[in-house]
Amino acid sequence: MIVVLVETDAQGATVVSREALTFARDLAGSSGAAVHAVAIGPLPEPARTGLLAHLADQGVQLVHIPQDDRLAAYAAAAWSTAVIDVVKSTSAGALIASGTPRGNEVLAHVATRLDVAMAANVVQIATVEPLAVTRQVVGGAALEEMRLDDGVAVFSVAGHACEPRPAAEAAVTEVLEYAPTISDRDLVARVARVEAIATDDTGALTNARVVVGAGRGAGGADRFAGLLELTELLGGALGVSRVVTSLGWRPHSEQVGQTGSRIAPDLYVPCGISGAIQHWAGCQSAKTILAINTDAEAPMVTRAHYAVIGDLHEIVPAINAELRARLGR
Amino acid sequence: MTNVLVCIKRVPDVAGEVLLSEDGQSVDARHVGFTVSPHEECAVELATRVTSASGGTATVLSVGPADSAEQLRNAMAVGCSDAVLVEADTVQFGPADIAEAIADVVRTRAAAGTSYDLVLLGNDAADTGDFQVPVRLAYALDRPVLTGISTVELAGDRVVARGDGPDGTEIFELPLPAVIAVMEGGVSPRYPSIPGRMKAKRAPLETVTPDFEPKGSGRVRLTAPTPRVSTVEILGSGPSAAPAVVDLLLELGVVSK
Ligand SMILES: Cc1cc2nc3c(=O)[nH]c(=O)nc-3n(C[C@H](O)[C@H](O)[C@H](O)COP(=O)(O)OP(=O)(O)OC[C@H]3O[C@@H](n4cnc5c(N)ncnc54)[C@H](O)[C@@H]3O)c2cc1C
Ligand SMILES: Nc1ncnc2c1ncn2[C@@H]1O[C@H](COP(=O)(O)O)[C@@H](O)[C@H]1O
To answer: Is A303 close to B228, i.e. CB distance below 8 A?
Structure first.
């Protein structure tokens, strides 16, 4: 049995959770195991219906949904208790989540409490018998093959390590509600309240179809007008390098990379960004990369699909003018 | 008075291609410098702020080779008052072993009269990225734990922590003692001043050795990802490339007429 911790949003299962389900199904295919899901937290409609449709599509036979009001506010320890209950009741041999902050946090609690190893950001199964996984280290610039042969194999799947593919045969997903064995201790580190953020909209960056990137080449906090105009003309979001946030030119919520956001847009346009491995860690899932840089040898240029060589302060305004002329805006 | 222990890891400072050692067990760092994760720099900054507000001490700790003293001194140059080096060849240490080594120091110091009310760590190490040491440490010490935290502030015997969640900023209030893993973004780490550097040279650094058998990390080997052959198509140079760029944008369907 393989259990997958599925995170949800307003539409159902998140994209990265569906990726984890596909990953689990591939592992199950090679080991003959069944895949169950566990989904925690409030599930108002239409999220619940969406979740069940996503799970059916992924061929999941059964979803375990804990019923407990104390799970309304997030607490990693309480979530991990709810997950351990499922691991035990199904005698699972593997527990998988997506490599999100919550996915990794809950798995770390579960692995510690079960006294087993955990592998973060797995991209591939290396060997099935005995189980070994390949995972991203150094922000994805190197890979580690790691044994995971404890009683329960606990690991998270790196975002965009695989595409969410529907199962050959859709399932009719059954729902099993259960009462988790949460204790008061599990609730000590629990979200007390949430403040909605108006200006600092990180979701806009991670979900954008187009991201315009800006690095040290932008040259100063007051030199973003052209880049912001391009971002707006493309209906996208601005993403920046760590140099830009460290110098205080733009807020950290816009940072792309190992210690910032991971993006997977259809198009990424990094302007004046050299392409250090830690930045690449956050943008390598972009479908198409169009780099603008004075240096034709910059790693970002050689790794891009397309590039324009030159000063971004000349090129970006020219693109903006051309876009306005051609699109009549 | 609140005493804080902040944990940092010496890691190779690579920006370009990562070279691996011949045995595939570690990064070949012969030609690069060393650093710590930006998350840990922010944890050090928060440790300094919390203790200067409460009048306690900020101790910085690292588990690793003797050369980790460099990173410990850097942290003392920006406000930590003393350091502990748990000297070990950590190549085969797993996150449970690191947590055990840190927990041992916390317990030994508590027995000697210094208790750490707050242990701050980075959210994930820059090299191994295990996302576990803080949680494993918290269970070893039987304390509550938070990860992904941007700012911490003391409020009496409680700590108020904030971090980004899926629906906005999440606010937590924990009783002390607690363990908190910090993520870059809430504070800007300060630069060391010259007097800070001078003071750090003379600041106390205690070296201890772990006295347990490590469980190991499960590492079989490191490999380099298959190098990408450059397939870049240069659309042109300078502003005259703009029409070609717009052609591409239309072709990709990211803008429409
Ligand atoms: C553990 C760790 C984590 C990190 N995490 C991140 C992270 O999350 N995100 C991140 O981005 N970095 C991260 N970094 C930092 C990273 O290593 C690089 O230092 C950083 O990405 C470089 O930013 P940059 O490309 O803007 O600057 P630079 O490397 O200085 O590059 C500037 C580029 O701009 C070009 N340029 C200059 N002027 C112009 C112009 N007028 N027009 C066009 N091009 C121009 C130059 O040719 C050059 O390629 C991390 C580092 C470490 C050690
Ligand atoms: N060898 C080490 N010495 C001190 N602290 C460490 C060490 N390894 C990890 N840590 C701390 O634990 C955090 C998370 O690391 P990890 O779980 O390995 O991703 C790091 O950011 C550090 O703060």
So the answer is: yes
Average pLDDT over residues B206-220: 95
For chain B, what is the domain count? 1
Enter the tokens of residue A266. 């259809």
CB-facing half-sphere around the CA of B235: CA atoms within 13 A: 26
- A2-187 shares its CATH topology with A205-327: yes
In a domain, B148, yes or no: yes
- The DSSP 8-state label assigned to residue A33 in this structure reads -
Residue pointed to by tokens 């304390």: B143
Query: How many CB pairs below 8 Å do chains A and B form together?
Result: 245
**Å from CA of B231 to ligand 2 middle:** 37
For ligand 1, the distance from its centroid to the CA atom of residue A239, given in whole angstroms, is 12
For residue B197, give the CATH number of its domain. Answer: 3.40.50.620
Strand order in the sheet with A210-214: A237-240, A210-214, A267-271, A288-293, A306-309, B233-237
Fold of the CATH domain A2-187:
Rossmann fold (3.40.50)
Ligand 2: nearest atom to the Cα of B120: 23
Q: Which domain holds residue B28?
A: 4-208
Q: What is the CATH number of domain A205-327?
A: 3.40.50.1220
Q: What is the pLDDT of residues A87-127, one digit of tens each?
A: 999 999 999 999 999 999 999 999 999 999 999 999 999 99
pTM, two decimals, is: 0.96
